[in-house]
């Protein structure tokens, strides 16, 4: 097992392939990849490290059972996420490379980041040094600004959705709850993870407001930054906290700050977490002008020139040890069987009657190859 991981580390620096512009041949499919090991699992999908046979590059492969997605009511979210990811490319976003499907499963091939998510590192270290957290903040600011330029609201920015690469740079992931809004359009769904949801999301749910816009992402990022530095969120909620109680807490409660925090830092976070969204610090240009961040060269940050203070451990997966158990049973997982017995499996699946929802999901699924995107020299893709 250790030898395999050593090959992964030496074969690719994980993110070096993002500027590749080579053309792929046949449409991607499962047989084009070698399965290395499993690294995570959820209610309706699993994630594996895979190696593309032709290029020898390593990726993360997420595969999701269509029927289970339909049963869980998340099929539309998966299709929406694929649609959004097929339009974007950014150095601080976990980018999509390929998608393909078979009668039973949907597959997403993405950048492989082995540095762990910020939730894992917070659980291990309690909190981060300010200079370390500040680089994460700036890198994710660039990612959020790019998404907003594409009219995409992430809606679920939290430590679990910020991954580190092996050099220690931060990348935003998981657009499962994201939505794309037209100009002057408002989102109305009660979406997100409660400790990171902005007041106007609760207000919309409580019918106090007509909807919300991209400013909710800057609130969530402010919550994340406070948590990175303090080891806890600025507003504490339990599983029993009602939306109306959370809304009142945002409106009336004051945020506790350690006495040793500098005034410019406190003002920065206070402004990111303004209950009144009209007074909130939103947008990269506004952040650049704030006293706390005005000396930061964001162009240099975009070019990955500042060296991260923290370098993730290169031994192991930087994740919950439970995922390590997946390695022992990988050969019995559905993806392994589908790779080794593809023809027979496909034959059985295609002969089964498919319900209308399954057919609709298969039709809506996007077959995607990143090699067909027009990517600017700086690594950013912008659609017309």
Automatic annotation (TrEMBL):
ATP binds at residue 62. InterPro entries: Kinase-like_dom_sf (IPR011009), Prot_kinase_dom (IPR000719), Protein_kinase_ATP_BS (IPR017441), Ser/Thr_kinase_AS (IPR008271). The keyword Transferase applies. The keyword Nucleotide-binding applies. One of its GO terms (biological process) is G protein-coupled receptor signaling pathway. Residues 1-25 are annotated as: Disordered. Keywords: ATP-binding, Kinase, Nucleotide-binding, Serine/threonine-protein kinase, Transferase. Pfam families: Pkinase. Transmembrane segments: none annotated. Residues 33-293 form the Protein kinase domain. Residues 13-23 have a biased composition (Polar residues). One of its GO terms (molecular function) is G protein-coupled receptor kinase activity. Belongs to the protein kinase superfamily. This is Protein kinase domain-containing protein. It comes from Caenorhabditis nigoni. The gene is Cni-M03C11.1.
